[in-house]
Amino acid sequence: MLPTQLKSIKNIIFDLGGVILNIDYQLTSDAFKKIGFTDFDSFYSQKEQSNIFDLLETGKISSESFIDEIRKHFPSENVSDAAILEAWNAMLLDLPMHRIELLHEVAKKYRIFLLSNTNQIHLEAFSKIITNAYGSDVLSPCFEKVYLSHQIGDRKPNASCFKLVLDENQLLPEETLFIDDSIQHIKSAESCGIHALFLDIKKGEEITNVFPDIILPKHHS
User: Fold this and answer.
1) Do residues 47 and 182 lie in contact, with contact meaning Cβ atoms separated by under 8 Å?
2) I want to staple 11 with a disulfide (CB 3.0 to 4.6 A). Which of 119, 142, 167, 176 is the partner?
3) Is residue 155 packed enough to be buried (19+ CB in 10 Å), middle (13-18) or exposed (0-12)?
4) One domain for residues 198 and 213
5) pLDDT in tens, 156-214
6) Cα radius of gyration (the chain)
7) Are residues 119 and 129 in the same domain?
8) How many domains does the chain have?
9) Per residue in 73-112, pLDDT tens?
10) d(CA 41, CA 49)
11) Do 159 and 111 have their domain in common?
12) Alpha-carbon distance 13 to 64, whole Å?
């Protein structure tokens, strides 16, 4: 729930994965282990990751180069591109309609933005998930502007990410709230003077509960 001291908020920056789009990192870990990348967890997690993932998320290497690099970690390099892509995308789940409806309502009261650490492979995959479910891209139009790490060449928790959003849109940090499910990103936003709210999805916290004054259709309760 929005703290009472944040009544001065005029702008909200949302994270994507875990906050709006359902994801499960464990599914990708399990998928890679199943096809032979047995120590995947030492390379990638929500809190930290090896340099190859950073390069992918900041657009500094191509999807093809990422696949080739990942393949080196398998006992046999015969694993296919398709198998690697399927494992990498396994974490991506669904986009519930009630969150889209929430964003539309929140946008009536605040200027809202999306700031996500993602990559070209995942963008293509979750775009298909959304289009298959709703017939079109129902996500991007919710926001005034969308910032994806591989497109801006920068990623959270770098403070420069937050400053980019603030500067480009002439937002005052004290009037801005950032919502994310990664504590390291929350701390970085706060270091920029932005109010931040940690959404603990492991405890079942849901973005719709942050905005109790917004009433959504009952069929999505």
Assistant:
1) yes
2) 176
3) buried
4) yes
5) 999 999 999 999 999 999 999 999 999 999 999 999 999 999 999 989 999 999 988 88
6) 18
7) yes
8) 2
9) 898 878 999 999 999 999 999 999 999 999 999 999 999 9
10) 9
11) yes
12) 31
Instruction: Supply 190's token pair.
Output: 């706060």
Are 119 and 17 contacting, i.e. CB atoms less than 8 angstroms apart? Answer: no
- Residues 172, 78 within the same domain: no
The residue among 182, 210, 211 whose CA lies nearest residue 15 is: 182
List, as one string, the DSSP characters of 47-76: S-B-HHHHHHHTTSS-HHHHHHHHHTTSSS
Domain boundary among 61, 89, 117: 89
Q: Domain residues for 69?
A: 25-89
**Cis amide leading into 217 (omega within 30):** no
Are the CB atoms for 112 and 106 separated by under 8 Å? yes
Distances (CA, A) of 17 to 156, 157, 158, 171: 13, 15, 18, 23
Q: Which residues pair with 23 in a beta bridge?
A: 92
Q: b/e map of 91-109 (b: 16 or more CB within 10 Å)?
A: bbeebbeebbbbbeebeee
Other Cβ atoms within 10 Å of 129 Cβ, number: 16
d(CA 112, CA 169): 11
On whether both 9 and 49 belong to a single domain, the answer is no
